[in-house]
Amino acid sequence: MMSDSSRSIIEQYIAAYNAFHIEDMLALLHDEVVFQNYAGGKLELETSGISEFRELAEQSAKMFESRCQSITDFRSTNGQIVVDIQYEAVLAVDLPNGMKRGEQLQLTGKSVFQIQNGKISRIEDHS
């Protein structure tokens, strides 16, 4: 079962992400946070610790003019909180895959969170 406080922490994190408020995102993370990004079931990126996460968050923020994760569902499974996400963003830079500045991304996926001592200790993004 998911607690109201865990849900609130995740909602605050996503709101800070959408608003490009990196310090607010970091304030919700455990010092030893692990972040993993999966695309098509393959691990594409991993960070360990808050300093590596900060570096990634700062780099990522520069890539988008706007971005919005919308929560479509919350569920608790095996001590983890799974959040279904609808993601939209507008690129601020050209990407190596051929996408150009100003183009819009639209993805669906899920994020899996673990909470430890009132902080997010693990995030897995799956698209």
Quick gist of this model?
It contains 3 helices and 6 strands. The chain is an alpha+beta fold.
Give Rg in angstroms: 14 Å
Q: How many helices does DSSP assign?
A: 3
Query: What is the level 1 CATH name?
Result: Alpha Beta
Give helix % range: 25-40%
Domains, number: 1
H/E series, N to C?
Answer: HHEEHEEEE
- CATH architecture identity: Roll
CATH topology: Nuclear Transport Factor 2, Chain: A
Q: Structural class from helices and strands?
A: alpha+beta
Largest sheet: 6 strands, mixed
Principal-axis shape equals: globular
> How would you state the average pLDDT, rounded?
95
Strand portion:
over 45%
Q: Quick one: how many beta strands?
A: 6
Which consecutive residue ranges, at least 5 long each, have pLDDT under 50?
none
Terminus-to-terminus distance = 25 Å
Can you list the strand order of the major beta sheet?
Answer: 2-1-6-5-4-3
Characterization of this structure:
This protein has 127 residues and is an alpha+beta fold. It has one domain (4-126): Nuclear Transport Factor 2, Chain: A (Roll). The chain has 3 helices and 6 strands. It has helices spanning 4-18, 22-27, 50-61, and strands at 29-39, 42-48, 64-77, 80-91, 104-116, 119-126. The protein has a 6-stranded mixed β-sheet with strand order 2-1-6-5-4-3. The relative contact order is 0.21. The model has no long low-confidence stretch (mean pLDDT 95).
